[in-house]
Amino acid sequence: MFQTFDSVSDKSFGAKHLPLLRARLKEIGLDGFLVPHEDEYLNEYLPDNAERLAWLTGFSGSAGSAIVLTDKAAAFSDGRYAVQLPQQVDEDLFELKMTHETKPEDWLRENAPAGTRIGYDPLLFSESALKPFQTAAVKKGFTLVPVRPNPIDEVWKDRPDAPAALIHPHPIEFAGEDHAAKRARIGRDVAEAQADVALLTSPSSLAWLFNIRGGDVHAAPLPLGRALIFADGRAELFVHPDKVSAELPSHLGDEVALHAEDEIDTRLEALAKEGKRVLVDTGLTPVHYIDLVEKAGGSVVRDVDPVALPRAIKNAAEKEGARQAHIRDGAAVVRFLRWLSIEAPKGTVSEIDAAKKLEGFRIETGKLKDISFDTITGSGPHGAMAHYRVTTETDRKLQPGELFLVDSGGQYEDGTTDITRVAAIGKPSEEMRERYTLVLKGHIALGMARFPKGTSGHALDAIARLPMWKAGFDYDHGTGHGVGSFLSVHEGPMRISKAPNAVALEPGMILSNEPGYYKAGHYGIRIENLVLVTEATPIEGGERPMMGFENLTMCPLERELIVTDMLTADERRWVDQYHAEVLAKLKPLLGADDAAWLEGRCAPLD
C-alpha cells in the first residue's frame, strides 16, 4: 500500500509540545514565534521531518499555521478544514480561526504587545508570505526576528530524519523535451528578465527542468534541493550527496554541475560578491536567500520562477501521456465503482476498505508509481469535510441512505490523475439529488466554457458557482488547481478560484474542475475532472477565436443522483456525449462484467 491509515495527529500534542517551545523561546529571548505549515521548500505536502505545525498543534491539514505567544496561541486554517481543525487542536490551548474571517497577521497585531520580539524561520517564509506580518509589526511596534535553527527542531526530540531518496532521470518519451533544450530557453528568459542567474527552490521546477524525479515527498515524485540556472543555459544542482544515483551525473552532462545542498549559501554569497543579478520568485523562494544575497552586496531581481509557466504548459508528449494515464486510471476507478455498487449496500465496507480496494485496482494496472495524494473516502458526515483523511480511529462503515465521496488519484510516469466521484449508497434523498445536480450544472458550465486569450482562472470561477449561488449555496475551496505531469497534483501558477490570480490560462495547461457542496454533519458532494486547456478555435459567426477545455478524466457520473429535469437540453447533451466518450475509451480495458456495468452507467439520460 502507498497509503497508511495510522493517525498522524493527536489532540494532546499541544499540551505536550507547546510548553517545550515556549521554554525554548524564553531561552533565546523571544516573546513569540510564527509556525507556518510549509517546509524549507514551501511545499504543500511535507516529508515527516517537516511536519512542525502538526507536531505543535495536532492539526494535520495541508494548509494552516499557528502563532505562539508567551500567554496565548492561535491556530489557523481555511474553509476546507472548518470541521477538522477543532477535532484535532485543543481549544483550551489555541484559539481556532478561519483565515477568511481572521488573518494570522491581524490576530498577531491585536495580540502581540508593542516592544515584543516575534521569531520566524526565514527558510519557511517567502517574501510575499512574510510581508503582511512585517506590515503588522510596523503598525503595532513589535519586532520580527529571523531565527535559525528553528526552535521547534531544537525541542522535537524524536524528529524523523530528512528524506534522501535517490534521484533518477525521467525518460524523454514522457518528458517530451531534453533538459539541454529546456535549460537553453529558460536561460533566455533569465536574460530577458535582466538577470544573470535564477535561483530555483521549487522541487517541481527542479524535477521538470532537469528531467529528473525523486521520492522525498509523499505522493509526489519530487527531489528536494536547490538549483541555479544561468542566462547561458548552464546550471548547478544542489542536492544531498546520498540522493545522487549512479545514472544521474551522466544524465545531467557537463553543463550541469552537481553540488551538495548545504553549499548553496556559499555559492549565492560568491555570486553576489561578483555583482551577479540573481532572479528570485518572491512567492516561492524562502526569504532567507533574498536576505543572504542582499547582505552580500548582490542585486535581487524580483520576478516569477522562470520554470513555472513553461512547466505548466504541457508539450505534445505530456498531453498525450496525460490522456493515456487518465484512460488507464479511469478503468481502475470504474472497476472500483462497480465493486462498490455491489458491496457497499451490504453495510460491511468501511472507508479504509474502500481506499485499499481502489488503490489495489490502480496497482493492477501495472503502471502505478504512487498515489497522487492520500485518498479521501468520506462516508456520510465525513464527506462534508472537504479534505477528510480516514484513519483507524475515524474509520466508519458505509451505510445505506448515505452519500460516499471518494477523491483520489494516481502517479504514473506519463501523467498525474485526480478524480472525485460521489456514490449513493442505496436510495438517496431528493435533497441529495437536487444538490448533486446543482454541483453537476456548475461542473458542466465550466466544462463548456469558451474564453479568449488572456483570460485568467479567476475570471472563470463564478461560472461554476452560479447554479449554486442562484439556489443560495456555495463552497469554501477553489474550483480548480493546476496539475503537473508526473509531478505534484497541486501546481501553479494558474488556478480557478475566487482569490485573485492574474495568470492567464494557456493551451496545454491542465487544471481541475471541481465544484462542490457540503452539508456539515450530513454529506459532501464534489464532482472533479481534470481538463486540458485547448487551442483557440473560431466560433461560427463570432469575431475572436476562443479556447476551451478538453476532458481528460474518463469515468461515469452518478446517474441515481442526477435530476434530469433540472438540466437544460445542452447540459443533457453534454452528459450524454461525455458518457459516450467514457464508454468508447474505457470499455476495451475492462472485463465483460465491468464493461456491461459501464454500458448501463453510460446510457443516454432519460
Written overview of the protein:
The protein folds into three domains: 143 residues, Creatine Amidinohydrolase, Chain A, domain 1 (3-Layer(aba) Sandwich); 144 residues, Creatinase/prolidase N-terminal domain (Creatine Amidinohydrolase, Chain A, domain 1, 3-Layer(aba) Sandwich); 282 residues, Creatinase/methionine aminopeptidase superfamily (Creatine Amidinohydrolase). It is 35% helix and 18% strand. It has 19 helices and 27 strands. It has a six-stranded mixed beta sheet, with helices on both faces. Strands 12-11-10-8-13-14 form a six-stranded mixed beta sheet, with helices on both faces. Strands 15-18-19 form a three-stranded antiparallel beta sheet. Helix 4 packs parallel to helix 5, helix 11 packs parallel to helix 12 and helix 16 runs antiparallel to helix 17. It comes from Parvularcula lutaonensis.
